[in-house]
Amino acid sequence: GRLPSPECVQTLIEETHEKFRTVNEGANADYIPALAGAPTELFGICLTETSGVVHEVGDTNTPFSIQSVSKPFVFALICQAIGEDAAREKLGANSTGLPFNSVLAIERSKDGTTNPMVNAGAIAAASLAPGGSAEEKWAFLRDGLSRFAGRTLELDLTVYESEMATNQRNQGIASLLGSYQKMYWDPAEATDIYTRQCSLNVTARDLSIMAATLANGGVNPVTGESVVDAIHCQHVLAVMVTAGLYENSGDWLYATGLPGKSGVSGGMITVAPGKGGLATFSSPLDEAGNSVRGQLTARHLSERLGLNLFASE
Ligand code: GLN
User: Fold this and answer.
1) Is 5 annotated as belonging to a binding site?
2) How far apart are CA 57 and CA 249, in angstroms?
3) For ligand 1, atom 4, which residue shows the shortest CA distance?
4) Which of 95, 98, 157, 230 could cross-link 105 (Cys pair, CB 3.0–4.6 Å)?
5) Distance between CA 98 and CA 130 in Å, rounded?
6) Ligand 1, pocket residues at CB < 6 Å
7) Going by CA atoms, what residue is nearest to atom 10 of ligand 1?
8) What are 26-73's pLDDT values in tens digits?
9) What is the pTM of this model?
């Protein structure tokens, strides 16, 4: 089936915003000090159709750091750069069933790989960016993420410095990957590049266009630019299905039947292949680090718009 008319979709997302606006559960992430004080009442929903029509309601132009929602897009860029077989061999594609910053996940895997939706695999993915210096690698990632969004994304310096001062755990993960030959650049520099990647500011509108690009075979439906080949979108969505919401990915798939990806600043994307990209922003998180209102919104819209990939009609 197709999406209902643009008027119906707009009305539906407005109703959905109203329905979940007052939900008051969850808490901001506080292990990155700069995220702890974000206003919890902000709530935006944006849905971009693969036709390029954008629907918005609420706080869709408020900037926030992209955090882990960058991970699927960086994975797509790395698949495009080094090929999907090399990317899977070097990064892994199996879910860990463990929290996003798990060290145990590396120790328990057969070869030190995890998957590019959790920190270990994502830091390894950042280390694979083309370039002969950390600056070149960073420029490659920032440029690629910007093309997904259709505008130049800027670093949130406060968030970046706050996380760099407190990211000893990610530095440890990067070093440990080196002992398995699964770190592909200097671990300290790779962690720095990854932290910059996570500190890029986006809006819910940006994330929705980025998600719609994955839904649209790698062609940004607003700018018309081909960012990555369609085959890479398929691989990225497959890994998102099993690992996009970390240890809660099974519950998420049960509820929505769609690939999704969350981040600790409260952003979340949900991709309906061939149809569109949904993004939400709301900072309070559940225990696994996933936006509470974001999950409620995605579940409701998946049901109401008939987006579940496992439905027979
Ligand atoms: N930059 C954050 C970290 O590495 C991203 C985590 C997340 O969004 N889940 O801890």
Assistant:
1) no
2) 26
3) 119
4) 98
5) 29
6) 67-68, 100-101, 119, 163, 170, 198, 263-264, 289
7) 101
8) 999 999 999 999 999 999 999 999 999 999 999 999 999 999 999 999
9) 0.98
